[in-house]
């Protein structure tokens, strides 16, 4: 059936296929390695430099009364500020964003829902300094509320909101329509089906999306400059007066001419990364694995 | 415990498209009525208009009357959630709630409608699972996820879930089409058992299945693509399958089309 000529042709094709396959695999592996280089480099460098100044003292002291050349002080006030500001942003943006996503997916179908989606898309690309400027002009100046952790939280909420809406929206869309119908067919009202069937089914994905949004805003520096402003001492209340935040702290310390300050900046950066990591891992553990059916 | 359904001049639309036209059909209680016909003939649309699930699809609407023991279910005063508890539904693909355990799946209809008493829920779960013939297989793992069961077990779980809210009518939209032959037989036996208690309507593509489980068979068809589905003939299953009145019915059941 197979003539020698045909066999030769097939073996040629097979050899060519094997070469192309090997080349493609090689290229893809190379791409992975190249993509990993900056990631690993940044992480290892931050860990290497950050651990130099990281100490119990660093984590428990503020910069109050620390002179420019003193090898002392820490980021406690900034850690506190960041946690409070991000918490305020999450408390405001997560419920609101989730509600908007539920509206778009479960209830909206017309032009208004389309307009909301479009606006959210535009907001996703909003430069963070603009969010800061907006809160600065509106809250800090026009309403005369002054700099505060709350103002910083508001600007971070503006940045978080579109991310929460978009990721929640996508997760809700993945919930099969048959599950909603199963709820309706049992005589379960629509709102109850949304709360008890649709949202739990999408919860793992929504949590991941929310954590991405939190991680994104935790490192934002520009809006903090215009809203929290920065403060060297511990300020427990986010509602009155300027407050520090870790990104602000890293920014101001890294700008110093003195080596002790630069080392504090690296330690602050490492602390920031660890906070984001802990938040992300905790959220993943809480949400558990995805409950979406594979079909 | 079971109710008679009567449709008069029922027309169902998707937007401006007329999907089924002029259905006059009486469905007797404590019987299994099978709806057969080629794909796209409107069987599913018809069955979904009997518990007002048709209108869940955006733009879909229904004209005509559907009487449930004489009461029009499309009357503006009707509470849709109450109606859907009275007229339960089982879908083509098993769709247990993925975040809920076996127990919670069966109890879902009651729990999400405000029943809180644990003893009442537990009783309903056991009774429904027994009726669905699943109790023996799952009684020792009620806390496992509903999705951990096999396809056939999942479908019986969905049947248990549907009967847990004590409906009068059970609508089944191709309940076996996603199942293997053994699971199909189990479900068919179950359908025959359940007709002692409920009015049952089964949509099926499988004519042997219609012949095995139903007392009455209704044949739907369409003249051409884009035309609405119509009810051609309805009668005792034995008669429809042996000497139907209409030539189209005969052509379909003898396998000449569809």
Descriptive keywords:
heterodimer, A: 295 residues, mainly alpha, MetI-like fold, 11 helices, flat, B: 258 residues, alpha/beta, Rossmann fold, 6-stranded mixed sheet, 4-stranded antiparallel sheet, 10 helices
Short description:
Helices cover about 75% and strands about 0% of the residues of chain A. Chain A has about 300 residues and is mostly helical.
Plain-language structure description:
The complex is a heterodimer of chains A (295) and B (258). Chain A has two domains: 4-53; 81-241, MetI-like fold (Orthogonal Bundle), CATH 1.10.3720. Helices cover 76% and strands 0% of the residues of chain A. Chain A has helices at 4-53, 56-60, 76-107, 111-124, 128-142, 149-174, 177-185, 190-218, 222-227, 246-254, 259-287. The longest helix of chain A has 50 residues, at 4-53. Chain A is flat. By secondary structure, chain B is of the alpha/beta class. Chain B has a domain at 5-94 and 167-253: P-loop containing nucleotide triphosphate hydrolases (Rossmann fold, 3-Layer(aba) Sandwich). Chain B contains ten helices and ten strands. The longest helix of chain B has 14 residues, at 118-131. The radius of gyration of chain B is 18 Å and the shape is globular. The mean pLDDT of chain B is 92.
């Amino acid at each position: 059936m197979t003539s020698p000529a045909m066999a030769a042709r097939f073996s040629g094709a097979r050899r060519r296929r094997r070469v192309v396959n090997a080349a493609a695999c090689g290229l893809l592996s190379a791409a992975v390695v190249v993509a990993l280089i900056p990631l690993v480099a940044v992480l290892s460098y931050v860990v290497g430099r950050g651990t130099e100044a990281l100490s119990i003292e660093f984590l428990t002291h503020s910069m109050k009364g620390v002179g420019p050349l003193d090898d002392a002080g820490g980021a406690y006030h900034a850690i506190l500020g960041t946690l409070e500001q991000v918490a305020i942003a999450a408390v405001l943006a997560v419920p609101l964003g989730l509600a908007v996503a539920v509206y778009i997916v479960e209830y909206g179908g017309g032009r208004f829902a389309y307009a909301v989606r479009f606006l959210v898309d535009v907001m996703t690309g909003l430069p963070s300094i603009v969010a800061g400027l907006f809160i600065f002009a509106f809250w800090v100046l026009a309403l005369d509320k002054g700099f505060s952790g709350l103002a910083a939280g508001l600007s971070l909420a503006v940045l978080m909101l579109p991310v929460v809406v978009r990721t929640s929206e996508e997760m809700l869309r993945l919930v099969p329509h048959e599950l909603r119908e199963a709820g309706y067919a049992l005589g379960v009202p629509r709102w109850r089906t949304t709360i008890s069937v649709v949202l739990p089914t999408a919860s793992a994905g929504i949590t991941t999306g929310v954590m991405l949004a939190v991680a994104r805003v935790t490192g934002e520096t520009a809006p903090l400059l215009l809203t929290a402003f920065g403060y060297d001492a511990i300020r427990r209340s986010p509602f009155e007066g300027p407050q520090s935040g870790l990104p602000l702290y890293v920014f101001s310390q890294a700008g110093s001419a003195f080596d002790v300050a630069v080392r504090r900046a690296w330690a602050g950066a490492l602390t920031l990364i660890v906070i984001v990591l802990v938040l992300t891992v905790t959220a993943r553990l809480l949400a558990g694995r995805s409950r979406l059916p594979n079909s | 415990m079971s109710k008679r359904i009567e449709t008069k001049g029922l027309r169902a639309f998707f937007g401006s498209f007329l999907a089924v036209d002029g259905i006059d059909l009486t469905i007797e209680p404590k019987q299994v009525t099978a709806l057969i016909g080629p794909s796209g003939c409107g069987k599913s649309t018809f069955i979904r208009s009997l518990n007002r699930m048709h209108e869940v699809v955006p733009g879909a609407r229904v004209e005509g009357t559907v009487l449930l023991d004489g009461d029009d279910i499309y009357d503006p005063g009707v509470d849709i959630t109450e109606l859907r508890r009275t007229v339960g539904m089982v879908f083509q693909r098993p769709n247990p709630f993925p975040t809920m355990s076996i127990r919670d799946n069966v109890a879902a209809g009651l729990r999400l409608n405000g029943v809180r008493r644990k003893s009442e829920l537990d009783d309903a779960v056991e009774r429904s699972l027994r009726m669905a013939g699943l109790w023996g297989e799952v009684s020792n793992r009620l806390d496992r996820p509903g999705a951990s069961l096999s396809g056939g077990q999942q479908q019986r779980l969905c049947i248990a879930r549907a009967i847990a809210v004590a409906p009068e009518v059970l609508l089944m939209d191709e309940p076996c089409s996603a199942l293997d032959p053994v699971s199909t037989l189990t479900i068919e036996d179950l359908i025959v058992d359940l007709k002692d208690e409920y009015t049952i309507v089964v949509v099926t593509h499988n004519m042997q299945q219609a012949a095995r489980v139903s007392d009455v068979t209704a044949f739907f068809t369409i003249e051409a693509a884009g035309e609405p589905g119509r009810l051609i003939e309805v009668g005792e299953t034995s008669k429809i399958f042996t000497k139907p009145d209409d030539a189209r019915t005969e052509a379909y059941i003898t396998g000449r089309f569809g």
